[in-house]
Every structure is written in structure tokens, then in C-alpha cells.
Amino acid sequence: MDSSINRDPSAKAHFRGLRHLVFASFGMQEVFTFDLLRRRVVGAISPATASDSSFWNTRLFPIMVGVMGTTVGVVPLHSACLDRDGKGLLIAGQSGAGKSTLSVALAQREFSLVSDDWTYVSKDGNKDGLIASGLPVPVKLLPDAVQHFAELKAFTPKESLNGELAFEVDATKVFRSHVKFTSRPHWLIFLERDNRPGCNFIPYDPSDARAFYERSAELLPEEFAEAAATRSEIIRAVTSGKCFRLRSGELPQRTAEAIDHFCNGV
Amino acid sequence: MPPYDHTPYSHPLDVLRRFMPSPLKALIKFEKEIILVETNDSSLLLPLGYFVSQSSPVFSPAFHWKLLRDADVRGKPAEATIVMAGSLLVANMGPACIAGIDLEQKEVLAFIGRDVDSHDYQNYVFPILSGLTQFAMDKKSTIGIPFPNGVVGANV
Fold first, then answer.
1. CA nearest A4 in B: which residue?
2. What is the pLDDT of residues B112-136, one digit of tens each?
3. A23·B98 Cβ contact <8 A
4. pTM of the full predicted structure?
5. Inter-chain contact A217–B13, Cβ cutoff 8 Å?
6. B14 vs A contacts (CB less than 8 Å)
7. Which residues of B touch A161 (CB under 8 A)?
8. Is residue B74 less than 8 Å (CB to CB) from chain A?
9. Substitution target from A10, A16, A19 for chain B, most B beta carbons within 10 A
10. What is the mean pLDDT of residues B80-105?
11. pLDDT tens per residue across span A133-192
12. Containing domain of residue A102, as a range?
């Protein structure tokens, strides 16, 4: 921390990386450098940022896990995660498929919300299994989510970290959702929007599911070949269970109900 | 050498621009040492003195610079903030120019924005990168290197 550094509260995060270094700058003066080789972070920040717990919890820690996770055996998967009785439901899908909206709808039923966007999967220590973790960050819902959740009418969408206009709200407070930080991956559903009504669950070939995650995995420099191999191993394990495609032409609450019933039988 | 291509680099799985091509390579005399410079813009080589001729003996570079012209970033460099922690030095001049110097690996890794012209580069950015390289080579005091804000030591 340096008192001569000024904070620019309106600054967007700017990311660049070369070899083992990743830079994240916020405005003209504040910067963090992630050294993936030595697993350390170096930063120069203002007193205002240093004392802003919201910045650390909702911006820097998620960035840090996203940037450094793969090199320490924690694989970021672009998927929501919900938990029911210790069994994890991962929901993957293209951006805009409705993962976050569906997650909130599921969390209003018997599921606990682990993550609505990025889930961090690692091996479970010495045990033969995986742990899926979320971060204590707000859920992010696009402005049209207000059509499905009246609770959002009290809020105004704001520009989020990636520049999207979105509601970012505490699911526990706003939706009275039950939240958990970890689960064990059990089901994997690839969500697809469909113009036709109904919810159709179709078995998904694990190799296709694996290819989906591998295709969206960040390229890593050659010095992290071992980390990339561990990532592939974890992706293989995640996709070796019960994988389905869900084509839904229904509203989020109706889709959540269908998933709830489906998970009872699988 | 070919002129710099201002086409923005884009790859959906490389949002950090780690794999932005840097096809130009040159061995440069720097102080009493030889450094290998890798870049995508020949104008970033110009202030670096003279090239080692091909008839010179085979050198083992004492340092490696990777300088990438970043076509996606606009704006001028800000006053530099230098952070030093362990074997890492970071020179932050805002999004327009950010550099990391790894003292152990003996390398400078830098992104230089589109609007950093030859005047900015030669009179401001290059002296900072040179000063930090000299510091890394000699472990000299950072006093005398043009760091407007001094050096911040920090670990998170």
C-alpha cells in the first residue's frame, strides 16, 4: 500500500499476461502482478483500495483464483453449481444460455447455490473424488431476469467487471437462497435454449462434454504443461459421471422444476 | 524489417494476449552485455543502440526482452509506479505500458500500447526499462533510475 497512489473508482480492470506473469491493472496507478511460477502476488494499491473489503472479496479474490487456480490444481469451469444433499449439479452452457437465472430458480427449490457462473474444481486431497467450490460473490443476472424474479425490481443493473450491464445481488438476502461453498460433482447438465415448449433431457456423450470444457480452457504457456495435464485429468473426471443436455423452451422456474424431478430419478 | 501491423490480436482462449506473435528477434548490445529482444514492432528496437553483427561470435544473451505492441490499448503512459518484491520488479504506467522484470529469469516482459509513440518510448518508457534492466544486471541501487514515484515494496 502506498499513500501516494490514488484510486480511480471508475477504472475497469485491464488484464495482460506473458509467460509466468499476469498483470491486472485498475486505473493508471493500481496494479497486481501474479507470478504463476513462484505462486505469489505483488501489488501496488491505494489506502482506499486496501481498506475496501468489497474489492477484495468480490473482485480481487475471484480474479486471483481464476488467474492462478489452474497452476495449483484448481480448475475454473465456466459452469454454475448447485448442491442437493451433498451431490453437486453442474450446469454448463454457452454465455447467455441462462445458467445464472436457472441457478437462482433452482436455489428457490431444494437446491443450495454454490456458484452461478464460475465453479472451481479440484481433487479431494487423498480421497478419490472431486470438490466443486464457489466463491462468496454476488449472483450476476442480466437485466431481463427482472421478468422472472420480482425481487429484482428494487435494484438497478450496473456495469459489471466484464462490462456487461447486470444485477449483482446477494442471493441469500434478495432471494432467501440457501448457499453452500462446496459440493461434490454428481450431475452435469448442458443447458440449451429451445424455441419449442417443454424440457427434454438427452444423454450426452462424455467425450463431447469433455471436448466442450477443453475447447473453452485458457491456453497456458509451455512451462505449465503439468498444470494443463492436471486440468485435463480433472475435466475428464468431471465429465465421466451423469451428463445430459437439457433443451428447454420453458421459463426458469418451470425448467428448475423439471430438473428437480429429473435429479430424483437419476 | 516489416512495419508494425496494427491489426488487433484476438484469440478466444487467450484473453491475456500471452500468445500474441512476436516474430522479430534481434541481439542488441546493451552496456557491456548482449540482450535478446523479441517483439512484434520494429520501432521498439530503434533506440536500442546497434545490433550485434552476424559476424560476431556466438553470444549467450545476458537478458531477454519481450516487448509487445498492444494494438487494443489506447492512451499515453502514466507516471510510473515501480513495485519490487523478491525477484520481481513491476513498472506500471497504466494500461498503456506495463512491464514485469524477473531478476532470476533475467527477462523483461512488457506490453506497450498503440498510442505510445516513438517520442514517448525513447524518452520515457525505454529509459525505465533500461534502468530496470541495468539494476537487474548489476544489482545497483535504483537511485538514479527515473522512477517519479520511487519504488514501492509490496507483497500480497
1. B149
2. 999 999 999 999 999 999 999 998 8
3. yes
4. 0.89
5. yes
6. 218-219
7. none
8. no
9. A16
10. 94
11. 999 899 999 999 999 999 999 999 998 877 889 999 999 999 999 999 999 999 999 999
12. 74-265
Shared-domain flag, residues A54 and A85? no
Residue A146 and residue A67 in one domain = no
Q: Nearest Cβ partner of B154 from A15, A25, A43?
A: A43
Shared-domain flag, residues A84 and A122: yes
How distant is the Cα of B95 from the closest Cα of chain A, in angstroms? Answer: 7
**Burial category of B53 from C-beta neighbours within 10 Å (exposed 0-12, middle 13-18, buried 19 and up):** exposed
Backbone angles phi, psi at B26, to 5 degrees: -150, 145
Cα separation values, A59 from A41, A115, A239, Å: 15, 15, 29
Dihedral angle over CA of A92, A94, A95, A97, nearest 10 = -80
In total, how many domains does chain A have?
Answer: 2
In chain A, pLDDT over 90 holds for what percent of residues?
A: 87
Whether the complex's predicted ipTM is more than 0.90 is answered with: no
Residues A84 and A60 in one domain: no
